[in-house]
Write a structure and sequence with these properties.
- It contains 8 helices and 7 strands; from the N terminus they run βαβαβαβαβαβαααβ.
- It is an alpha/beta fold.
- The protein has a 7-stranded parallel β-sheet with strand order 3-2-1-4-5-6-7, with helices on both faces.
- α4 links the parallel β4 and β5.
- It is globular and about 55 Å long.
- The protein starts with 7 loop residues before the first strand and ends in a 7-residue tail after the last strand.
Length: 265
């Protein structure tokens, strides 16, 4: 399969988990990649592995919470490849805290990465995409994919600040889509409980609050999935591939639940 042959894709938070799997899926479809993550070792390791497989990869160590990171990321990516066809804003962080115990530092930690960092990555990349020509006549000049969450669709205990940051992602997606159409499409993905390191953290912090055994929060969430299994990074990567592909050229401003039916709206 080479559905993304020649496409230049920038993926933040691609050192592990969902972002890593999206990078691997895009690579298998022929894309040229910018792998960006705060973890330099993870970026270099994945980059070297993909390069051995013949993938054209630019590894970048990036902290999207840094106010100047977005501009540098887009400038370095464009300087190397000449254009950017797809941006996946996947970088994200979480802290599970009681509402009354959430501190200003907790709030800023999540907002600075999940909402502010994402916003300025969208802004910087949209400027580049709006200035370039499409890969083929009649196609968008670029596609932006934001990682939201079903937590951004409804408030829930212990996750107020995180849910607020992901609700912001959905609103950023819709607003950017309105202003950047018809040249650039902007969509988001709302995963449910995905079997990644982030959910290991969520489970540990959640069960500590409720004084329950480790693993309880994760098992309870998986048991509530109508599709009767845990969600994988590959499930999310499949949607990320669709939104990057030609098949989604007429779709913009949408936020897709990829959660096995946990949240049905």
């Amino acid at each position: 399969m080479h559905g993304l042959k020649g496409v230049v894709a920038v993926i933040t938070g691609s050192g592990r988990g969902i972002g890593e799997q999206i990078a691997r899926r895009y690579a298998s479809e022929g894309a040229r990649l910018v792998i960006a993550d705060i973890n330099e070792d993870a970026v270099l390791s994945l980059s070297e592995e993909l390069q051995r497989e013949g993938v054209d990869v630019l590894p970048l160590t990036v902290d999207v919470a840094d106010p100047g990171a977005a501009t540098r990321l887009i400038a370095e990516s464009t300087g190397h490849f000449g254009r950017i066809d797809v941006l996946v804003n996947n970088a994200g962080v979480i802290r599970v805290k009681r509402f009354l115990e959430t501190t200003p530092e907790d709030w800023d930690y999540m907002q600075n990465v999940n909402a502010r960092g994402l916003f300025f990555c969208v802004q910087a990349c949209a400027k580049q995409m709006l200035s370039q020509t499409p890969l083929a006549d009649g196609r968008p000049t670029g596609k932006i994919i934001n990682m939201a969450s079903i937590a951004g669709r409804a408030g829930r205990k212990f996750m107020c600040a995180y849910s607020a940051s992901k609700a912001a992602v959905i609103m950023i997606t819709q607003s950017a889509a309105s202003e950047c159409s018809p040249k650039v499409t902007v969509n988001s993905i709302c995963p449910g409980p995905v079997d990644t390191d982030m959910w290991i953290q969520i489970d540990a912090e959640w069960t500590a609050i409720e004084n329950k055994p480790i693993g309880t929060a994760w098992r309870e969430r998986v048991q509530a999935v109508p599709m009767a299994r845990a969600q994988t990074s590959e499930d999310v990567a499949s949607m990320a591939y669709f939104l990057a592909s030609k098949d989604s050229d007429f779709i913009t401003g949408q936020s897709y639940h990829v959660d096995g039916g946990v949240l049905m709206l």
